[in-house]
Amino acid sequence: MAASNIRKKKHYLYSSIVEAQYHGHSFLLKLVFVSNRGNKNKYLVLATTQTKLRPEEIIQLYGRRWQIETYFKTSKQYLTLDKSQVQSYDGQCGYIAVTAITYDLLAWQERQNTDDKTIGDLFYLMNESLPDIKFVDALVYLISELKELKQTSFEKIDEAIDDFISQLPRCIQIALKQII
């Protein structure tokens, strides 16, 4: 297609609707040909039965789907999301939340680095640099820090909260200001 006379669109090469057959059933498929960023002579073909969608919408939906797929693969492979033995609903929600936060931190770290480390590489590097501490020691440290925080004035707490909120994305800041 790269050498053809078909005019390329901005976000995709070509889009068409075809009739497909599977086990004797016939149905329409919309195909969108997207150029591969790494190699302009190769392309990806995205297919959907939602023939009324514009090619840009199909590309956007596949992009979202791909992000979700990579999140779950990474969460299961490196962050042991599928190995949890927590029995309570609240515990499972907490475990999933901690896993999501860990993934977000790793993804952020990956974006900050200019080298070619993957999220898996970063996971192993971060685990190597963190010492193993007992749960009781971590809990004692957390409680002592909370006691120190309790002793500080409410003004400093408000200042810390305001500083934290100012670092969040704008849409989250607006939502929090409506709640607070």
Automatic annotation (TrEMBL):
Domain Transposase IS4-like: 23-103
Lineage top rank: taxon: Bacteria
MF annotations from Gene Ontology: DNA binding; transposase activity
Gene Ontology annotations of biological process type: DNA transposition
Protein name (record): Transposase
Lineage: Bacteria, Bacillati, Bacillota, Bacilli, Lactobacillales
